[in-house]
Give the backbone structure.
Amino acid sequence: MGQDLEKVLLSQEQIEERLTELAAQIDADYAGKELLLVGVLRGAVMVMADLSRRLHLPVQMDWMAVSSYGSGTKSSGVVRILKDLDTDLHGRDVLIVEDIIDSGLTLSWLLANLRSRGPASVEIATLLRKPEAAKVAVDVRYVGFDIPPEFVVGYGLDYAERYRHLPFVGTLAPHVYGG
Ligand SMILES: O=P(O)(O)OC[C@H]1O[C@H](OP(=O)(O)OP(=O)(O)O)[C@H](O)[C@@H]1O
Ligand code: HPA
């Protein structure tokens, strides 16, 4: 496992500190409201757990599963809903919780999809964003870290379903994905 990693990009401490800041901002922005957190499976599980536990607002949580990456390192651009929400979004303040915005294709599709369901508002919170990899612009209210356009793993992010459990974000050694 150690040999698979090239470097640690963001330590557990850096991530937790930033999530605390984002939670305070979200608490202030939605004061007096009840928020519906929509986690995007599977990558957002860690961010959802750690961000939601820092919120003081009343929140509900629901989950969607979408897929655009399959087992590779590039977005296919074709988004499929693998599991839809159980919650009616009509009149709700919705915050999509994500691990990463890379090309932006998944989130721009998801944002349009959720906005078509009649919510009061839909915003996005993502731990990571790769500005140099953007293929479409996505309006993101809460960003943990802007990172370089390298493939990263850990803290929910996988390569071929591995490395999601790592408590930090790192890059993989090129030999792992045949680079
Ligand atoms: O901006 P994009 O280029 O569209 O990439 C971002 C998407 O890719 C990842 O999901 P993935 O499809 O890998 O599924 P997973 O969450 O199950 O790992 C991530 O969780 C985002 O949903
Ligand atoms: O850099 C990444 N790593 C893992 N999954 C991803 N999905 C989009 N970008 C990435």
Remarks:
- Residues 40-43, 67-69, 75, 98-107, 158 surround PRP (ligand 1) (CB under 6 Å).
- The chain has a mean pLDDT of 93.
- The CA atoms of residues 42 and 155 lie 11 Å apart.
- The chain has one domain: 13-150.
